[in-house]
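Async update (no meeting this week)

Hi team, since we skipped the sync, here's where things stand on the single-chain job. The sequence we agreed to prioritize is pasted below, unchanged from the tracker. I ran it this morning and attached the output directly underneath so nobody has to dig for it. Comments welcome in thread, and please keep replies under the output.
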Amino acid sequence: MKTGRASRSGVARVLVAAVCLGWSSLGWAGQADLRHQAAEALLKATRFFRQRVATEGGYLWRYSEDLSRREGEGKASATTVWVQPPGTPSVGMAMLEAYLATGEEYYLDGAREAGYCLLRGQLESGGWTYRIEFDPAQRRRYRYRTDGAGARPNARNVSTLDDNTTQAALHLLMRLDQALGFKDARIHEGAEYALQRLMAVQYPNGAWPQGCERPPDPAKHPVKKAQYPESWPRVCPGGDYWLYYTLNDNALGDTIEVMFEAWRIYGKREYMDAARRAADFLLLAQMPEPQPAWAQQYDFEMHPAWARKFEPPAITGGESQGVLRTLLEVYRQTGDRKYLEPIPRAIAYLRRCELPGGRLARFYELKTNRPLYFTRKYELTYRDDDLPGHYAFQVPSRLDAIEAEYRRLMANGAAPRPAKPPRPAKPSPSLVAQVKAVIAALDDQGRWVENGKLRYHGKDDPTQRIIDCQTFIANVRVLSTYLAAAGR
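Output:
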């Protein structure tokens, strides 16, 4: 609601006055001083990351305080960066948002460096794997586009859609391309190449695999609806599960969002069409009764299938909720109510699946609907008292929020969400408090150092204090939001 309309109501006048009082309590001098401090902190922190933390413009996940030890999802050397969030694309996006909030070219330069880093890690298959290597000997293990014939004959060339990896890289390149007015030929060509290759590997039924290298043979992938297998092995058989039709870890939902963003930025209908084909797959992939939800992945006969040794053929309480959120978003973008049709029966089924305490099992056995778990020796079981600690075998239920959004859309119709949330007209008292805390936590070198351990360096690792990219990203966004609201 605009503040101009608030004057029509006495209650609204009180609320507006309270907000204004919270802002004006800083005093005009205090406001200007805090803006100056926030701008200085943002510059200082970004300078430290660009000059001291970056490797070839890219980033990892966590570093020891002295930067001597570093990691992504695994130990890393000084010549390695990470693509998988919160690595290079995420840090680059934070810098890009700082530029959009302030207009300062220094932040755009940092985002562009991250984009160029990603281009040096782009595979010939079009996307990215989890990490980028800059050591010449290590680079030969990957078929990077920039290296031409320098790769080994068996070099890795599989683009991954797992954990929002290729998708995050594409989001940064597309947004950066837009911010640069589509005038940086390297950035524009890299984004276009990735999008075209991503559409080329989309299966005939609209799905994508978890990992992709070349276009599929349509004759080997008939379009059919999901169905239950007559039987399934109780021990993981192995195999190239990453080629299956994959919903695991929101891989398909993240890719659909990439295509929607490509459509918004470039205006090409082919990107909207690719998103809709993927959404049509979600309609095909809904299992029939008695379990009208979704599996993590499907084989080419559209049966739920094994992936890793702790991911059996099953109905999933986790990814099914992600599918429901994706279908709601597809409806917002397209206005086509066919994407809402599967939602009521899926919600009703998942409510029947809720465990005591309101959670959902990650896996429900096909047809019997019994929750499935694994022991620490990775033996399939119906018990939950000996679980491995690295995986969420139970997940929160978000069904109330999903159903409320469904009912809102049914009542009000589709209205696409803005590409980014609107900036506040004035900084709120809570935002001011966050900004002060962020500034206070920054040290003289421009670092946010915190207590913590490196996860992949073993029990004997001496690290007690770390620099975490997630903290940098969150704090940069707080400062950027404040500066945009307070005025440049």
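Quick observations from my side:
Residues 124 and 145 are 5 Å apart (CA to CA).
The first helix runs from residue 3 to 6.
Reply here if anything looks off.
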